[in-house]
Amino acid sequence: MPRASYYIKHDKDRFNGLLSTIPRYILIITIPLTMGIIILSSNTMYALGGPDFLEGEKLLKVLSLLLIFAPLSSYLQNQVLIPTGNEKLGLFCAFLSSFISIGLNLLFIPRYGYMGAGYAACIAEFVAVSTRYYIVRYKLEYKNLRFFNKSVYLYFFSSIIMGTVVIYVNTLTTNYIISLFICTSVGLGVYLGILIMLKEQVTIST
After folding, report:
1. pLDDT tens readout for residues 160-186
2. pLDDT band of 53, cuts 50, 70, 90
3. Span 62-69, average pLDDT
4. Model confidence over 125-166: pLDDT tens digits?
5. Staple partner for 90: which of 77, 78, 114, 152, CB 3.0–4.6 Å?
6. For the CA atoms of 72, 77, 78, 82, what is the dihedral angle to 10 degrees?
7. Looking at residue 2, what is its pLDDT?
8. What is the DSSP string of 75-128?
9. pTM above the 0.70 mark?
10. CB under 8 Å, gap of 24 or more: what pairs does 125-129 form?
11. Half-sphere exposure of 148 (CA within 13 A, CB side)
12. d(CA 171, CA 173)
């Protein structure tokens, strides 16, 4: 946050550039991570707690979406809204998402149990990041802020290819731990390999 505050006062061009750059650095990690967790949810839960944890794999798949929503929402709040003096708008988004979360929990938990809590958490966080994005881009008119661009589309594409390969590799052994290790290694290699071949900007610049 100190650096963001500095750029706003002394180098607005640099600050505007970060609005399009930082989300890409977030999404290049969180998109494939979410895909991997969804596919390897059983392996992950087994690694965390053994056979007794396997029944939590469905909840983990739902909550994995928070890996995308939460960092983006936090970035908008702490690196954009607060440094620009619009923390009250961010607080409004927090209250809105909290209100929605409470309402959805009351509605979903009696019907869906612990899965309902997961659904409510994801929907509330999606509302939080969406409202903050709308405020920053359209109300405050920081047009350089974009969550969807060529690089992000490449992250989704590469993650889908990675996921397809991981699904196949995961069928080669019934050992959850070994499969998790192999799939993680192979998936990471495939994902980065595709991005390098496609000369994705963030990948080739690091």
Report:
1. 999 999 999 999 988 999 999 999 999
2. confident
3. 96
4. 999 999 999 999 999 888 888 888 889 999 999 999 999 999
5. 77
6. 160
7. 54
8. HIIIIIITTTT-HHHHHHHHHHHHHHHHHHHHHHHHHHTHHHHHHHHHHHHHHH
9. yes
10. 125/65, 125/66, 125/69, 125/70, 125/73, 125/97, 126/65, 126/69, 127/96, 127/97, 127/100, 128/69, 128/73, 128/93, 128/94, 128/96, 128/97, 129/69, 129/70, 129/72, 129/73, 129/76
11. 2
12. 6
Cα-based distances in Å from 93 to 4, 5, 57, 62, 178 = 20, 21, 30, 22, 42
**8 A C-beta contact, residue 100 and residue 127:** yes
Q: Which range has the worst mean pLDDT, 4-13, 66-75, 116-125?
A: 4-13
**Token pair belonging to 88:** 């009250």
pLDDT, average across residues 79-102: 92
Supply the mean pLDDT for the chain. 91
Q: Are 17 and 11 in contact (CB under 8 A)?
A: no
Amino acid at 205: S
Contacting residues for 32 by C-beta, under 8 A, at least 6 apart: 155, 158, 159, 162, 187, 188, 191
